[in-house]
Amino acid sequence: MKPIWTAALCAVLASHAPALLAQTTWKLATGYRAESFHTQNIYQFAREVEKASAGQLVIEVHPNNTLFKLNDIGQAVQQGKAEAGETIMSSMVKDIPIAGADSIPFVVGSYKDAQRLWKLQRPGIEKHFAARGMKLLYAVPWPPQGLHSSKPVRGLADFKGTQMRTYNQTTTRIAEMLGARPVDVAMVDVGKALAEGRMDNMITSALTGVENKVWGPIKYYYEINAWFPKNVVFVGSKAFEALTPEARASVLKAAADAEARGWQASQALAYGATEELRQNGIKIERIPPDLDQEIKRMGEKFSREWIRSVGNEANDIFVPYYMPQ
Ligand code: PCA
Fold first, then answer.
1. Structural domains of the chain in order of their starting residue, each with its CATH number
2. Dihedral sign, CA of 117, 177, 266, 192?
């Protein structure tokens, strides 16, 4: 009897062993360069997950729009074409309007407020992701968005007819409000677009200016602290649910650590990036008070339009944001 029993046990073990020991690989697509701090953070997240799962879950990072383009990554994960991805959250506004809450001009002026906004925005984002078969892992902000320009900017008239580089629907609307001509340019193509004379100005972080070495064509940088957009990292729910409970816990733990690390890195890089622009000959200036008021008013108009189009879910975020308990 014994040998038969052993054989049966072996057969059972053999049938389970591959499932227990099999290695799972997730492809994670991002639209930013491998050297970007967001991507570096993802690499570390991947290493930590691999270590915690003893090599059972490998996250293969595909940077620089190589697997899918930045603005298509949400859809690609939703449709199961990639297991995981990273994109700038506001690129999802068409489908998930509250994803644009962090790109409304002049609502958030510091990392502390950005953190507060994220706490209020997160539950809604998680809910919408879940409804689309995705699980949110973490989000990390870009440094504050400032104005880069080839010419000095003294008044609203200085934007009229200029070619303003945009990176999503929100920045396109802002360019329109300023009377500029929106030119959609991916982050990784900014240097090329400048060299080809396709853009005169853009609102983005000093860090993005540094990464694309914008000095030369760009001569001025204004720290208007317009908003703090976030990148989100997410995985398809099916891929996540297929993991063992232990592996799922390791992924969530590594994601929470990546979020904390990313916020710190963003803040640490913000100041140095503006200095680097200065050292490369870009003039760091303040916009005149009149223009400051005018663009703040434009920001209010943008907020009104946005809240009106989004409805109750916008109130769920901004009522507690403006009236904390
Ligand atoms: N850099 C990205 C998004 C926000 C930022 O600071 C870009 O310019 O596309």
1. 22-141+229-275 (3.40.190.170), 145-226+281-322 (3.40.190.170)
2. positive
